[in-house]
## 1
Amino acid sequence: MSETLWWQHGTIYQIYPRSFQDSNGDGIGDLEGIRQRLPYLTWLGVDAVWISPFYPSPMADFGYDVADYCDVDPIFGTLEDIDRLSADIHKAGMKLILDFVPNHTSDRHPWFQESRISRDSPKRDWYIWRDPAPDGGPPNNWISNFGGSAWQFDEATGQYYYHAFLKEQPDLNWRNPEVRWAMHDALRFWLDRGVDGFRVDVIWHLIKDAELRDNPINPAYEPHQRELNRLLEVHSCDQPEVHEVIAEMRAVLEEYDERVLIGEIYLPIERLMAYYGNDLKGAHLPFNFQLLQSAWDARHIDNLIREYEAALPEGGWPNWVLGNHDQARIADRLGPAQARVAALLLLTLRGTPTLYYGDEIGMVQVPIPPERVQDPWEKNEPGLGFNRDPARTPMQWDDSDHVGFSNAEPWLPVDHRAPERNVATQKQDHSSLLSLYQRLLELRRERKALSIGRYVSVTADGDILAFRRESDGENLLIALNLGGTAHRLMLDEGTTGRVLLSCLGRNEGAEISGSVEIPANEGLIIELAD
Ligand code: NOJ
């Protein structure tokens, strides 16, 4: 596969470090714990590990509030631990992707501490400070992603500072070149240590309207929605100048070989595409969250795959995401039968797949009793269903008291409702979801058509979603049933083939000719004859 790079033909696995493996008995996962579990990831067959933030942090937003970009929080370990982990990941033939959080720091970061001292502080302009509006209120109407005004008044200097997230997460001023240089140095610190790339947090937020104009009212707002949706985010993010900032970050990565820049971007397809940058000098992979946000409907998903493929800039590499630490678990959303179909879809679409830890064993939303809620979003906007804790619970390794995650009470509750929902049990069972993921990942490695082949749309109707993947002499038909009743997919006259893999584990190896019956909740990979 020399013609493609690792981040193109490989699969990314996201680890939320607090919840993967605890090695020191404090109930919170750590870097050494991840290292101990590397044999599992090798067995599973993923190619790169993305670890959510482990930098020193007061943990107001569980690490997305960084107090030092160039160190490790003692909860997670030390710089030696990350070096050891990185060395072992590389020894295992995998890559390491860090989470980079450049939009905001913690309010405890020394830069902000210095910035807030006085209006004349040399770091004042590193953040976004403004005088109150004439009535003494916030400088504009922008709303925080976690609810409430996005402006916090600071008594000491009589000005407000802007925070797109918590007030403990002040936004940096990326229009200031000194901020850019300092952050480039942080990138180089990790690149020099050998990390293979970054997932950049809320990259579309980095630049705000130069005049900080009010956002317009959203006429479609409904009260059950998050407060942020009261307004249309016209001026607070996705500004044209952001692309220059991203191109500069990309240029830092280009000083090294084969590193990857992934952007977290929640935008519709047409706006997402701009994040590949002019001449593809932006993010290598602007995260594609379409599958997370769409109704699970075959016609709808078929359209969005076609639309996404058609919108990609020439040479832009696609990618697909099925879950992350901010979204409800996919197995919960779709149910266990369709979670298998979703696995097959993720790992057969054209583009780099990102898998969220635990989705491979079908982890679901774990109920969190009110007294154990951790997520600051839930604390700010309670009871509306925004709690992210249920999707961040400890990885279920076995069926012991603390599910093999820790020998102490874990920081979030563990799930004991389904005895088979753990790695140890599913590894033994060839019909489990975990075994399906492992087989799909193996097949994806063996079959170039699946990892880097062309995507060819196939006409189907009802609950059937079908497409082909093709590469030098390999011609694979992917046919999925997103519904609960069997359908027959008609193929072009004279078409024959053989079933390579079935979600339900039925009829593998069977020959097909002219048409194929696709039972409810089935997904098939069929090798077509020439
Ligand atoms: C996006 C991250 O994925 C989320 O977890 C975090 O709360 C916000 N950015 C703020 O950093």
## 2
Amino acid sequence: MSSSPGMDSDPVPAPAPLPPSRLVSVRLTAWYWGLFSLSLLILFAFVYWSLDATLRKANAELLHSKVKEFADTYKDSGIAEIRRDASQKRSDEFLIRVADSQNRTLFASLPDGDPQGPSVLLALEARNVLPAERLFSIGLGKWGAFEFANTRLKNGSFIQIGRNASHRRGPLEHFVASCLGVAFPVLLLALAGGAFMADRALRPLRNLTETVQNIVATGKLDARLSPEKTAGELRELVISFDQMLEKIQALVEGMRGVLDNVAHDLRTPITRLRGIAELALRHPADLPACQEALSDCVEESDRVITMLNTLMDISEVETGAMKLNLSRVDVTDLARQLTDFYAELAEENHLSFSFTASGPCVTVADESRLRQAVANLLDNAVKYTPAGGSVQVGVRAANGRALITVRDTGPGIPREDLARVWERLYRGDKSRSQRGLGLGLSLVRAIAQAHLGECRVSSTVGAGSEFSLRIPLITSEL
Ligand code: ADP
């Protein structure tokens, strides 16, 4: 088989590869980084809130214990002791106030160095203290507040201890500063990590794109990805892609092979046709020679037409387009008639024919197609079996199928060629001396497939071959 020059060339100019796009990578990184930042922010806010709540609680407990302490002192020793106590245990942070039942200040000690002390005292005096109130606060504009613990004594007077809430600001500000200090490098690290992970995750897709672009640019289908370098779901994609490439490559190579063979096999009869016509044109006056040339031309044309028709029949089966003209067929009868016909035809070859059948074997099939298939098997047996050999034809029903076997004592087929005999336009090396197109067995297989059947071959070089055709036994029309 020769390959025709120019078959491999790609007539369509390959499009320039697209510039690599990182849009998905950038988006993935941005999404990851955004979500990470949001989570970090939520975490910091939660810790800030818990810290603030803890500090508030601790402050309230402290104020309560102080109020209780002063209340005990007041009960035991009166206001003079409180005054003494307040100046002794004096704490610069606390505002201590004792008020009578009319909320008139009996005693007040202001926090040291807190300019807001006097105004808070005034606010306390102006305020209606509810008897059951234990904790309250007095606001000092936007950010500040004084938090108070309050207790009412039996005689109706109040003891109030307060503290500027700004004492909590220190630890909270420290916390915010620490968070900001940590957040910056952490966010930077998250951005770099996100970009790295997105790049890593999308690498197999980029390889895939590169491979596809490479195939588009060069037309070479032998490029493959490396599944061993990919993990998870993308590994399955890479494996499937490689398998797809494998199949496409096999298909394209198969088609190229068929095209090469068809081109080669058409060239021979057409060159012959041209030669015959040219020769006849040189001697237009020689009528008998011209007539012979014309008859040769018809013969050669028939050969080309047969070849093209057979190729189209095979394609029809492969694409599911072959229409079967179904009817009831007795396969035994059909095979016997063909055996008789070929036995007569091969008389001069001194081939002995035998036919065995277990009885009528009726199925629903396209009779002319089935006849064509069995005839092709018999034709090959006659063609390849040397004089003196024998051809045995058998028909029987087995496992719901009609089994037709054609066994000969021909040269046999080498083991390595057995699978190839069904290929379109395949001809064994030693068979080229015989007439033939290399399409007979491909058509037999196509007809068997169209009938939902199959065909097989077994052969021993030097001893002969056995071809079998299996057609399902169907008794009612499909
Ligand atoms: P053709 O006979 O026109 O060459 P086929 O498709 O019928 O094409 O057969 C393909 C090839 O299979 C043949 O060229 C031949 O090498 C081999 N072959 C087919 N039938 C036989 C047979 N009965 N004995 C030996 N070889 C055979």
## 3
Amino acid sequence: MARIVMKFGGTSVADMTRIKAVAERVKREVDAGNEVAVVVSAMSGETNKLVAYAREAAPMHDAREYDAVVASGEQVTAGLTALALQAIGVNARSWLGWQIPLRTDGVHGKARILGIDTDDLIKRMKDGQFPVVAGFQGLGPDNRITTLGRGGSDTSAVALAAALHADRCDIFTDVDGVYTTDPRIVTKARKLDKITYEEMLEMASLGAKVLQTRSVELAMNHGVRVQVLSSFMDAPGTLVVDEGEIVEQQVVSGIAYSKDEAKITLVKVADRPGIAAGIFGPLADAAINVDMIVQNVSEDGKSTDLTFTVTKVDLDRTVQVLESRKAELAYKAITPDPNVVKISVIGVGMRSHAGVAQTMFKTLADRGINIQVISTSEIKISVLINEEYTELALRALHTAYGLDAA
Ligand code: ASP
Ligand code: MG
């Protein structure tokens, strides 16, 4: 007997036919004698609709009421899934965040989980009941409903799996696993049987939108074995596990890309102490996240070019902030460029292999693709290139690192 958390995303509970299929899938694990806790998202499209209502009611809405509205999508699916399970003879009961309770901080709209009281849940499970938990929602310090940020039901599921000491957390979604890269672009992309937490974290934060990044962090910190698999077919998915579990580690496991970023260059900015702080301090104050930064050594000792990236949505604000500081920063010009893509090769094997970056640079050079910015970390090399080469670069790198399906 195993204790399993089964989480179903929006497309898996999109209508009653699918909710009934979910119930059948859960029943199979129940019939196999497992202890099962289910976590559900809102029906697909539902949260977007609720967010739009809240915006329409008041553009500068009160975050507490926003949460009261958007958390309701999960309440509906928890109840319907419990009903569908009961209809096929499974003793199921819905649980809302506050009923468990799943405690969070008070940051409405993107609350963090503080703790889950599992006493009641475990007691009921021991009595043969199967909980169906509404994902995405919790209870704040003032006893008001909170939500965990978009995609947050992944985090609900992993947190519940950690609190219940579950053997596995199965995340059912509309793809059948984690791929070496986006299969819509690279037809030779392969499904990975296993991926390490660290690699998954990089893939998730770089735009492979299979799992909410925070859920992966949580799984890594608590050693929760996560499996990403499709609810539409009956096949094993991708296991997200500790490095030690992967016997034959590829040097590069996956290639991610993000078109969310824009590049900004400050031309001939003064080269003296305090300038970087004078640029990035005000951006941080404006809650603008900066990702890649490159600054060259100045030739004349007076000025240099400085390039960095921000998300596309922050581009105009970034330019505004910098323009308001022109006198102090003494730069010659600002050149914003939204037509870039960040491509990253990821793999824990990089730690112990040389030449990984060179393969990337050479592959891109052979295709005549110019690299604008480079940044590296222990398990990742990222380059910024012109957006129009996204497909060409992904395909070429996928082949170069030996990732193509046979
Ligand atoms: N329903 C929420 C959303 O769409 C939470 C989730 O599905 O993970 O963001
Ligand atoms: Mg999701």
## 4
Amino acid sequence: MTTTIASLLNGRAVPGGTVRTIANPARLDEIVAEASLADAETCLGACRAAKDAQPAWSSVPAPVRGRAIQQLGRLVEDNAEALARIITREIGKPIRESRGEVQEVVDTCTFFLGEGRRLYGMTVPSEMPDKQLFTFRAPVGTAAIVTAGNFPVAVPSWYLVPALLCGNTVVWKPAEYAPATAEAFAQLILHAGFPVGAFQLALADGVTTFAGLERAIETGVVDKVGFTGSTDVGRRIGELCGRNLQTPCLELGGKNPLVVMPDADVDLAVEGALFSGFGTAGQRCTSLGTAIVHSDVHDDFVARFTKAVVEAPVGDPTRDVLYGPMIDARFAERFERWLGLIRDHHTVHGSTSVGRITRERPREGFVGDDPEAGLYYHPTIVDGVTAEDDLYRTETFGPIVGVASFDTFDEAIALANGHGYGLSSSIYTTDPLHAFRFRERISAGMVSVNNSTSGAEAHLPFGGNGRSGNGSRQSGVWVLDQFTRWQAMNWDYSGRLQKAQMDVMDVSADLTYRLPD
Ligand code: UN1
């Protein structure tokens, strides 16, 4: 059954515009949805509708807003299996991971429903008597949230849930290649008790979205942008926001290193590398980019990692597999280009071939009937990566992991930071000194010790530095600074004008006093 999906303005579908057909990437002859993509005017209209609804929503007491977040969490939990199945059908994520992703939305709601009863400000002592100082968190206004499709509900929830809780209204522009998931999540949001207008769904392609966003920001309709996607697009959004004196929340790419020290538990490191390198077919922002392995354990690591990857189940995402197909044809095409970064000095391991899994280039142990029916790719380990390689500095969204080796800790750090990304990172070691030195010197926003580069929990700050973002953080209490602005208030009830710094009572001290020798 094919559903046609359109933007939802004030909860009502607004069809029209070009139609995009979405195939199940595990079975390309199965059409999942048809998406009617909006034009820039409709995107702007969605932003205006959200802007109109903002004053009323922000005047709802925060604990009541938290109640709406609670209802959303319940609805997502009660529809978890259906939502997970849509994700798997639309983007090919293994069903177990899709269930985990839905759980991440529930966790986010659970965290923020309570925040409605906190959203703390402070009382601050004044320099003067009969005067009090306070701080309040004020909503930013209307937020435009533009997200990728690799985490089609969890990552959007990291923006939408806290933004709404803080009294903002939102326009969500999901990935145009995951509209069925977006529409399902949007329906849950629309049924959670938020007032009409507080949430808008705009389905559009990237170019149109940017055009709509530009007009919305320049006319004062959008006050905040949240964006998860590529570094290049993040840069353009950063420029647009910067010109208009806004700071966007940017979550961009990664080339996440996993350092294996000579004292590491190598099996544990292999397990971590397998999950973070190839889970979601390597299409997470947190996916492992390069394993940086001490030369003493390099050969052992590569041998065990190769064995694990060769034996890993790849195939039908409705079954128990390490990974399924690529998310979409666009991802598959880009991945083929990145495979071209493998050079003669590299050694390739991990499967019976490289590239798309076909009848001519089969994957031994493929889970499923016909690999050619979907966008399946061989897992590829590329050993012998050096800092000079394009592969070392390019984010390669797909099932490919580089391996580099080092002799000194300084070399490991240089390799772990040298590509300029700074999202996630990991070190495997049994020495606390290495763990803490790594934490100090790694430029990444997130550091794992004896754990893979993936698997962030929903209440720790998530975000990166350098090519991975502008230092903004999502999740937990940290994201509140993205969706609120601090407002300072002072109240003088002395009945006279007390001037700060000038009318402050003095403390007289004898600073010549010294203790007897
Ligand atoms: C992303 O890839 O954009 O840490 C987010 C993880 C997930 C979130 C990844 N919980 O892998």
